Amino acid sequence: MLTNPVVISILVMTALCLMRFNILLAILISALVAGVMSGIGIVDTTSILISGMKGNLETALSYILLGALASAIARTNLTAILINAISQILSKKSTYLVLSIAAISCLSQNLIPVHIAFIPVLIPPLLPLFNRLKLDRRAVACALTFGLKAPYVSLSVGFGLLFHNILKKELENNGVNVSISDIQSVMWIGGASMLVGLFLAVLFYGRQRDYGVSDEMVTQSLNATMTKKEWAVLAGAVVAFGIQIYTESMPLGALSGLVVMIVFKGIEYDKVDEVMSLGLAMMAFIAFIMLVAAGYGAVLRESGGIEELVKFASLIAGSKIVGVLLMLIVGLLITMGIGSSFGTIPVIASIYVPFSVSLGLDTPAIILLIGIAAALGDAGSPASDSTLGPTSGLNADGKHAHIYDTCVPTFVFFNIPLIIGATLGAMLL
Questions:
Q1: For the chain, which terminal residue's Cβ has fewer other Cβ atoms within 10 angstroms, N or C?
Q2: Where are the membrane-spanning stretches (predicted)?
Q3: What is the pLDDT of residues 122-171, one digit of tens each?
Q4: Does residue 217 register a pLDDT over 60?
Q5: CA pair distance 418, 414, nearest whole angstrom
Q6: Domain extent listing, the chain
Q7: In Å, how far are 98, 114, 154, 321 from 369, measured between CA atoms?
């Protein structure tokens, strides 16, 4: 087992990522390690990897178009208007404020798919209000990470449709045919588990915390109003949302939304190139990681090491719970290293599907385990957007530590409930 090309390749990839080595290069090197150790050779391994990359072409295009949507929204006053409403309604209710931030964060994954682009715009102006309330920012970090992660884990909308499509495609690549509705019918367990974690985090960090910052500064009332530009961009976001639900195609939805924004001048015609360039800058690297991850999964399937892992699985097939926990823990380690749930699915699916079948798990349990195993570690990973995004906003005044104030709290309050929820769900489904 210690010479298994799949095991060694994943260990190499995890070690490189934990050493903060470039993720894209880490996956490429790990793919070559798997190919060489299995006897395929470097040239043929490279060919397999490139051929396998086409499996995530739709996802890569979706990311780039969503980046353009995020860029267009960030150029308007929509977020500023939202800040004003929050500060006026919830300025004295810290618990409701934290939960409202979690709700707004959820919208960034589904209704207005801007991902983390809203955080640098929304959070820094609210820091004086947090300081006045002596609000523990670790609770806010958990709220933001919840909103960045729970919606795509549990709902087939926005980034969730991308996540579920990747899960569907990789399951089919490994012999398990499912529909998007099949996936959503079980992945709600992940969202529910994270919701429990959110409430526990809000309770645990409910005590006041003084950051030693003068409270003379208060949140200023913003005078931003809805203009024709804001309405046009909002209309484009709604169209993107509606089209992608109706067609189950995120690229078509995002493209439709962009066209509406351009036609109604939410995006000035002479600024289209700039918006697209900013979208590329925001999402292109993630898109390429997705492409390479799909190629990596193809190499692992061709290496022959999976069959050996399935034989190993038969040794513990008598204990489903041990096999389930093993899959979840390995998924946690991989995603902690990669920092991307989306990129983890192609890596683990080729191993976990036959592994799950050998344990006698039914299709719903397989869907849940692979989906949650991929999502585990995204919260708590120092290299994940789900933690880097919250820190970027909360540390605008230098009072919020990335590891101890974002990564550790989100790791504890989300990964533990996810492991428990996935284990119970897999045993009962």
A1: N
A2: 21-43, 63-84, 96-123, 143-164, 185-205, 231-264, 276-300, 312-339, 351-376, 408-428
A3: 777 778 778 888 889 999 999 999 998 999 899 888 788 888 988 998 89
A4: no
A5: 6
A6: 5-428
A7: 30, 27, 13, 12
